């Protein structure tokens, strides 16, 4: 007589296996896009050809990342909308006043703009806030401690990104100098968004998040070494 326990274990094991396959496929797709971009930007005679795919790569990364969010609830949708909106409008204030990050302006690389800021900038703030927030959930720290660590992870990634962004005209700084104010502003905004992340009521687990953060970090750090 078959063990009834096995009848419940088999579907569960199948579901886990399917989830792992989806995860491997998503990781493979992102790895392919980033390796292609790395080789094209770092070694091609025509990096402009590859730069036109930067918005697509960002949208693909965010789309796959959010697809692995379990239980996409109303609270999660609200978190995404608020985070993207805050990130975007903080950049609008930053571009127009220079008070948040210093004086800078965006180039054409990140796609269509509104009020001098690419629309995808808000999406990028969402991706970084969500990814680092999920990563720090594994730390045995109180909520504010995790928010601090996550904000530092965001600033660390920005430090790797900045020279590449300037090189490929994502944005340009006044006098071609990246000010210390930029990193202070990034930390302050990141910390506010991380506190909001921790207080938002949704499942904070994502199997793809660690891969996305490390891939972004290695991509920009690697390009920086080629300078």
TrEMBL record:
Keyword Membrane set for record = yes
Where does the sequence pass through the membrane?
25-43, 49-68, 75-95, 115-135, 147-166, 178-196, 208-226
From the UniProt record, list the coiled-coil ranges: none
The alphabetized UniProt keywords are:
Membrane, Transmembrane, Transmembrane helix
Please give the name of this protein: Carotenoid biosynthesis protein
């Amino acid at each position: 007589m078959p063990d009834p326990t096995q009848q419940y274990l088999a579907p569960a094991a199948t579901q886990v296996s399917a989830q792992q396959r989806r995860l491997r496929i998503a990781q493979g797709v992102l790895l392919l896009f980033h390796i292609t971009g790395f080789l094209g930007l770092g070694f091609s005679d025509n990096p402009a050809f590859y730069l036109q795919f930067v918005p697509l790569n960002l949208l693909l990364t965010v789309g796959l990342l959010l697809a692995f969010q379990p239980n996409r609830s109303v609270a999660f949708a609200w978190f995404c909308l608020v985070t993207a909106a805050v990130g975007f409008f903080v950049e609008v204030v930053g571009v127009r006043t220079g008070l948040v990050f210093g004086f800078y302006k965006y180039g054409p690389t990140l796609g269509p703009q509104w009020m001098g800021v690419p629309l995808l900038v808000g999406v990028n703030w969402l991706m970084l806030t969500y990814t680092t927030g999920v990563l720090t959930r594994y730390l045995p720290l109180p909520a504010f401690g995790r928010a601090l660590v996550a904000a530092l992870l965001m600033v660390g990634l920005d430090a790797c990104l900045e020279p590449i962004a300037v090189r490929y005209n994502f944005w340009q700084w006044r006098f071609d100098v990246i000010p210390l104010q930029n990193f202070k502003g990034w930390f302050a905004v990141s910390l506010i968004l991380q506190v909001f992340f921790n207080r938002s009521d949704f499942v904070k687990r994502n199997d793809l998040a660690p891969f996305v953060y490390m891939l972004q970090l290695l991509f920009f750090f690697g390009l920086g070494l080629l300078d």
